[in-house]
Amino acid sequence: MKLNYLRKTILSITLASSAVATVHAQTMDEMWDNRSSGKAHANIQWFKDAKFGMFIHWGLYAKLAGEWKGKRYYGSGEWIMNQARIPVAEYKQVAQTFNPVKFNAEDWAQLAKDAGIKYMVITAKHHDGFAMYDSKVSDFDIVDATPYKKDPMKALAAANAKRGVHFGFYYSQFQDWYEPNGGRNTWDFEESKKDYQKYYREKAIPQLKELLTNYGPLGIVWFDTPGGMTRDQTQAFVDELRVLQPQSLFSSRVGQGLGDYKDFGDSEVPATPIKGPWESIYTHNDSWGYIKHDMNFKTPEEIIRLLANVASKGGNLMLNVGPDGEGNIPEYSAKFLRETGKWLDKNGESIYSSTYGLIPAQPWGVSTSKPGKQYLHVLYRPENGKLLVPGFKGKVSKVYTLAEQRNLVWKKTGDDVWIDLPEFDKDAANTVFVMEYSGKVPDYDLSVPLTVSNQFKENQLEATFAKLKGNAKIKSLTYSHYYGDWKHTICVTDMKELTDGAEFSIRVTEPGDYKISLEYSCSPESAKQEGSMNVNNQEFLFRTLRTSAFDNKAPLPFIKHTIATTTFTKAGVYQINIKPLQNGVELFKLKSVHLAPVK
Ligand code: JFZ
């Protein structure tokens, strides 16, 4: 069986429940299993409260740093053995030069602490099969095969425990490119001769037992890319390991929907709240493992906003760092994480132990909740300083700034709360306000009209919020930039007939002129088709502009096509209807609708 590893096709998503796809047999969707058992683990609460984790990808690949025999590789650095088809016999020799003398467990744990991080998960063994701890099961480990000769995981487990940071191991249970019977090394070993059960029995399970025995209590065992086991076998595997540490949480990629919480991939923040425990994982630059020519680090502002966005949907952010072959965490990772920590020092109350916001995303930003409190994360300041919290059913008692606890003037008109914002740096990453209230507030509602206001440069309506007509669908499109650098974008697709369409319900808060643009991706077959956008009792015609065909191994380009200018004479609720004017091929893959006030 040939498995198309880096070949995930379109994945249809079911919002607010597990995102499961309908693709080919044992595919990415099973390998990247993001389902969970649905049963609450007795020890899940710390994880739900934690909100911010640090992922660490560290192994022999860090020493190679994205380069093999003079050739540079881009994308997931921990995949270099696979990308360059390095034979086991040669890869093995890298261990002889791996000597991370700069590694300092106290510094790493202190960085996590300073950054406001509550849990750390590090690669004990990645797909390359190399154990970063002292293993008696295999000699291909840091103590036996390198000049370093020490077990860094011992010190790291202790340094985290000392600081109250939960500690966990990533372990690649199926892919092991070093072993003749491990998953996915097809350049040294013949697939048909593999005995996965033997590999599980003789390496994966015994090593996992070492990890679950010798490093104190583990918060998490982070499995990855399952394979080679049936559901029953996976259940038996889970049972055999569970008894060693019943308190440890198992990630969803243990497979077969048997994990304790759900994991979403890189660049994947669900558009609406998801109940139950889950985590989004992100690289800090473009790779998990260290690559010396990858300097594309997310700024503190990007991290702070990402964290708030993930929290507003009810999840955790686990952000990766890739230390180098000497044991140094990249300078920008350390610096930008510490900056994030400074923001969390003042604003952590709005993140830790919070759950998803009851106020749908607004042009100003997002919200998070605690009992009797809504935290308003203002990422974009309204020009006139008047912040609208629309359709809020609670009885508001008090509104104040989180950082200085300064009371603000507000008024309630019907269900709308209008808050007079104080002056604040409009370029700040995220300024948080607290709204205290009593009474029952209905759960998050997908169908409320999306706010469109002239107080912001732009109002963006995401595909997720479209009401579909005919056979139109909402899909999450997965495609990669660099190798293994996956992106996921939710779009309205399959608008092929006159009866198909997408409708957006908007609430325009100030009358005036607005420019409307459609952001979409359009394949050559779909180009030059006529479509129509109906809004405000006007029909605007357009013809699609070609971008490129969807290819999961390449970036998916989007064009922002300005369609029309319209005048809303009154504030109020309007519908925007988009549909094809021809039958046959898909109109385009619609990512969002943009409304920019004309002033
Ligand atoms: C897997 C690994 O192959 C990779 O090396 C890294 O360890 C990462 C954390 O996990 O790769 C994936 C799997 C799934 C997604 C992205 C990368 N995903 O769902 O977007």
Question: Topology, please?
Answer:
Blueprint lengths: L10 E2 L15 H4 L13 H6 L1 E5 L3 H5 L2 E2 L2 E2 L7 H4 L4 H7 L10 H10 L4 E7 L16 H4 L6 H12 L2 E6 L24 H19 L5 E4 L7 H12 L6 E2 L11 E3 L13 E5 L17 H13 L3 E6 L9 H17 L7 E2 L8 E6 L2 E6 L7 E4 L5 E7 L8 E4 L2 E5 L10 E8 L11 E3 L6 E4 L4 E3 L3 E8 L5 E8 L7 E8 L3 E10 L8 E6 L2 E6 L15 E10 L3 E9 L8 E10 L1
Parallel strand pairs: 2-5, 2-11, 5-6, 6-7, 7-8, 9-10, 10-11, 20-25
Antiparallel strand pairs: 1-23, 3-4, 12-13, 13-14, 14-19, 15-18, 16-19, 17-18, 21-31, 22-25, 23-24, 25-30, 26-29, 26-31, 27-28, 27-30
Helix pairs in contact: 6-8, 6-12, 11-12
4-nitrophenyl 6-deoxy-alpha-L-galactopyranoside (JFZ) binds next to loops.
Can you tell me about this structure?
This protein has 599 residues and is an alpha/beta fold. The chain is 19% helix and 29% strand. It contains twelve helices and 31 strands. It has an eight-stranded parallel beta sheet with strand order 8-7-6-5-2-11-10-9. Strands 20, 22, 25, 27, 28 and 30 form a six-stranded mixed beta sheet that branches. The radius of gyration is 25 Å and the shape is globular. The model is unreliable at 1-25 (pLDDT under 50).
